[in-house]
Write a structure and sequence with these properties.
With 465 residues, the chain is of the alpha+beta class. 55% of the residues lie in helices and 10% in strands. A hairpin with a 2-residue loop joins strand 1 and strand 2.
Length: 465
């Protein structure tokens, strides 16, 4: 899709037609009409961000700015140009697509109120980022409905994180698809930034992601994996205790449910009424990812031959090869925190999009443990609690609790004798063992990455005169 043409709700179009002749309709009121329809909003924001004659000094960042720029007639033109859910989707896919529209609208409302609660200068910016976060999921229902049916089946079966099922079916997470579309469709910066895996440096992007997770949990009756982590992050972000968070979330759900007729679904369950969340039993995986030799080959060729403009691009190529090629479910890259050589923090990674707590891990190197020893020189290790319990005993307790598996691979990456960072990889489940072949290929790719890092590092250094 070069341009967003996601089916919109016929009720949104009808409402717009009913008020088209009103001269007193404000941009705020017009925004309230279109906000429940993320499909239409995607088209409107794209149009506003790509207008050739637009000469504003500041970019479009909110829905109110979008409708102000387009005006009533411009909004109506976009709405009537889009197909409707009822006219364009198979009947079996209309309900899940409409449910996703509801989830996106709730995410936008969550984002708006989180922005108010945080005293953001422009809460609408966070609201828009949350509203459009799942544009890729809407697009998949339109273009790959049967695959989405299979994803729904696998997610309902349980036993595997949503990200793994998405990777098996689509070759990448749906959030990656959303990120690709947001970039292609010239979406506002915060929309794009909120879809970048592991990006933790932008508090507003973090707020949009929290809003999206809360909305996803709510529409799914608060039964998705990671509920307690999601609630904990929201409470920390908003500086609220658990009871205050419940009241905050349920006040938003009450507002949303007052307009639930847009979507022909049951009212969203308040957080205070949720049933006890069933924790997954054990660490048995439903399936294990299969290695892909073609992805390994692509990574090898790139690391050997490509001239990377920046060392971080080397790391991204390595992470893709490890995740997609060697079937290592989770790949993290730890880099030294700026102005703190004793701390390592996670950079954007592969396979961990649905592990926000995992993505926020930080390693402190000022005490003797496995990772501080690993970072003392270039080296590569396979750690297995059963096969080498001595190494496992050196892993910090909070890391063992966070990874929730008993085996992993790790490599320290150095450039010209100085530490650049650390690669961590695992297969998430203890039942998906890392064999010797995978370990050997992990070592080979990490060694190639070290050589490529050195070349990229030199390319970024100013030439000596």
């Amino acid at each position: 899709m070069d341009h967003p043409r996601l089916p919109c709700l016929s009720t949104t179009r009808d409402k717009l037609l009913s008020v088209a002749g009103l001269d007193t309709l404000s941009a705020k009121q017009l925004g309230h009409i279109v906000a429940p329809d993320a499909a239409l909003c995607t088209a409107l924001v794209h149009k506003a961000c790509t207008l050739r004659h637009r000469h504003l000094a500041n970019p479009v960042t909110t829905l109110r700015q979008t409708v102000q720029m387009l005006g009533m007639q411009g909004v109506l033109r976009e709405a009537t140009a889009l197909p409707t859910v009822e006219d364009s989707l198979p009947e079996a896919h209309q309900e899940p697509y409409t449910r996703q529209l509801a989830q996106s609208a709730l995410a936008g409302l969550m984002g708006l109120h989180i922005g108010y609660e945080r005293h953001e200068l422009e809460p609408g910016e966070m609201a828009l980022a949350a509203l459009l976060h799942d544009m890729g999921r809407l697009a998949q229902w339109v273009n790959q409905g049967p695959q989405m049916d299979m994803l729904t089946f696998l997610d309902a079966a349980g036993g595997m994180p949503a990200g793994e099922n998405e990777f098996v079916i689509f070759g990448q997470s749906i959030d990656c698809t959303s990120h690709e579309l947001a970039t292609r469709w010239s979406m506002p910066e915060l929309v794009v930034h909120g879809l970048e895996t592991g990006s933790t440096d932008n508090p507003r992007a973090a707020g949009a992601r929290i809003a999206n997770r809360l909305a996803s949990q709510a529409v799914n009756q608060w039964q998705l994996e990671g509920l307690e982590d999601d609630l904990g992050r929201a409470a920390d972000y908003l500086a609220r205790d658990p009871l205050a968070l419940v009241a905050f979330v349920d006040s938003i759900i009450e507002k949303f449910n007052s307009h639930i007729e847009h979507y022909k679904i049951d009212p969203v369950l308040p957080l205070d009424d949720r049933q006890p969340h069933a924790a997954p039993a054990g660490f048995e995986a439903t399936y294990c990812l299969c290695p892909r030799g073609d992805h390994v080959k692509s990574a090898v060729l790139a690391l050997r031959q490509e001239r990377f403009e920046h060392p971080d691009n080397v790391v991204r190529t390595l992470a893709t090869g490890l995740h997609a090629g060697l079937a290592l479910d989770r790949v993290l890259f730890f880099k030294h925190v700026k102005n703190d050589e004793k701390s390592l923090a996670v950079e954007p990674s592969s396979g961990t999009r649905y592990d926000p707590q995992f993505n926020s891990l930080r390693l402190i190197l000022d005490s003797p443990h496995f990772f501080s020893r690993l970072m003392s020189k270039p080296q590569i290790y396979q750690v297995n609690a059963v096969k080498n319990p001595a190494a496992w005993a050196l892993v910090p307790e909070h890391i063992r609790e966070s990874i929730r598996t008993n085996q992993f691979l790790a490599a320290s990456l150095f450039v010209d004798g100085s530490p650049y960072g650390m690669i961590y990889a695992d297969r998430r489940h203890a039942s998906c063992q890392i064999d010797e072949r995978a370990y050997a290929q992990f070592k080979a790719l990490c060694l190639l990455a070290s050589q490529s890092l050195k070349r990229a590092w030199k390319a970024t250094r100013p030439a000596r005169r």
